[in-house]
Amino acid sequence: MSALALVVPAEAAGERIDRFLGGAPECVEANLSRSRLQGLMAAGGVLVDGAAATNLSQKLKGGEIIAINVPAPLPFAPEGQAIPLEIVFEDAHLIIINKPAGLVVHPAPGHADGTLVNALIHHCGDSLSGIGGVRRPGIVHRLDKDTSGLLVVAKTDAAHHGLAALFADHGRSGSLVRRYLALVWGTPERSQGTIDAPLGRHGTARDKMAARKDGRAAITHYRVVASYGPPGHAAASLIECSLETGRTHQIRVHMAHNGHPVLGDELYGAGFRSKAHILPQAAREALVAMQRQALHAAVLGFEHPVTGKELLFERAPPEDMATLMKAMA
Fold it and tell me: For the packed helices 319-328 and 281-290, what is the interaxial angle rounded to 10 degrees?
């Protein structure tokens, strides 16, 4: 933690505090941008005569003493953390994890640590491939924070190159197999089919993706495994999805686009909240308790990029999703 102190000159009287600090020589020299200063103010790090100044439009009178407390910068490279991992397979070249829901894959704004990358650095030490950069070492694909299931990480650069090529091709000419299980609202008219809808960033909600003509190609193959409820009026269905492309939120967006959003998906299926009453009581309780989208990466298979051995792994959904499935039946 470092601190800056400055006195407001008389000629700054009537000026907004954020504008004054943005042009103050002391702040410029310390590389404190106006947006950074606004963030420090919001966090209570800017004091005027000893009192926290959180109002950006606060007018200065002149003569005040302003103290700015600047937190020490976080280390650029993620640090290892002893986070439990369910390791499905590991050799000198790669490691396959059954990721729990709630675990972020790599550091990002709002998730500086406590991620899968932090756990892998602790477990693997210096053996992770560095191709992905310091914030994503070894990462060749990802799962959403609240999606559980199988994920492979490269430990050597040779494995990273091979896996990256495989995932970039999405298994069209290689051996990649990725199958997901999802509980969705209702049941599709066809028991199996393909959703071919390009995806791009949503026009107004920047945290969402959307089906749009100018988006990137996105193809999901699906098969209805089970339907829960009277024929033609099923409350929900268990769907197996196979990816031919790998876009952000692809299954979640495609199923919502198809009229059957994933249960528990607050981002793409919030409008279906009112349908909860059609579920059995036990299922309603299980869905509330789950607090995430009912999506699990169940099957992952590929040819080992170094040894050439065919690998195929399958893991059942975790307890929260399994409980919901059982309550549906």
Answer: 160
